[in-house]
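Q: Given only this backbone (260 positions), what sequence would you predict?
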């Protein structure tokens, strides 16, 4: 394939990716899930890691969409603020819950751009944070208890289960229990929603699966020659995933159930 042919192909991909990333976001998006994954990029004769931030939304009709993505040098506060501001400028509205891990950059961006929107801490990451702070011999049992806590039918039952865990493990895993106590309320925001809806937004698992697919696709490349190539190639994969999502079923059917 000639260099000119490759250049033309890249121009076509760049145009499609740009149009997708800058498209207006119409209608309400009750739920937003954000996360980032890293890719190795060659820059100034050295290899560095850059963060590809991704936003997945669930619209008012219950359909999942890739709302946006952007490549940054790192996940600092300014970059997450910029990413969320760009989503807002494109029309992102109607948010009821934002789900993410507890990265301080994400929390800073949410507080500044969407200060009135409740935050759901990813339960999967939260459990891992707690368990990692416990002695190894208690980790398996504690993990089971924590999963059971988040499976409770209502917030009252979940708080009762939390108190039981605190009582059982405070003496043997004080750091883990401090983590549980401090982060519990942010991890149970979804209990304000119907039980049928909680599962879809209580973790960042949807984006984690997308991230794994991006990594799989990038394995053949290893190190990207520049940042533009990351956006071009991984952006194309994200557009493909977005189109697949449009053919999948709804996550919910009655928007009236979404009152927070």
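A: Predicted residues:
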């Amino acid at each position: 394939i000639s260099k000119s042919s490759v250049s033309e192909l890249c121009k076509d991909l760049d145009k499609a990716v740009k149009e997708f990333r800058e498209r207006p976001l119409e209608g309400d998006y009750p739920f937003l899930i954000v996360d980032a994954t890293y890719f190795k990029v060659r820059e100034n004769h050295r290899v560095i890691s850059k963060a590809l931030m991704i936003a997945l939304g669930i619209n008012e009709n219950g359909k999942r969409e890739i709302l946006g993505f952007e490549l940054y040098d790192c996940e600092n506060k300014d970059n997450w603020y910029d990413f969320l501001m760009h989503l807002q400028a494109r029309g992102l509205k109607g948010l009821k819950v934002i789900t993410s891990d507890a990265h301080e950059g994400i929390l800073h961006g949410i507080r500044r751009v969407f200060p009135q929107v409740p935050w759901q801490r990813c339960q999967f990451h939260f459990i891992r944070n707690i368990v990692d702070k416990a002695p190894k011999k208690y980790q398996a049992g504690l993990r089971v208890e924590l999963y059971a806590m988040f499976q409770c039918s209502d917030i009252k039952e979940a708080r009762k289960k939390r108190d039981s865990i605190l009582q059982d493990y405070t003496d043997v895993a004080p750091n883990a229990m401090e983590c549980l106590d401090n982060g519990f309320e942010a991890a149970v925001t979804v209990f304000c929603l119907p039980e049928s809806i909680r599962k879809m937004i209580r973790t960042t698992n949807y984006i984690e699966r997308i991230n794994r697919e991006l990594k799989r696709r990038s394995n053949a490349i290893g190190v990207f020659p520049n940042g533009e190539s990351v956006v071009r190639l991984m952006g194309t994969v994200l557009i493909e995933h977005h189109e697949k999502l449009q053919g999948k079923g709804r996550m919910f059917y009655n928007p009236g159930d979404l009152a927070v």
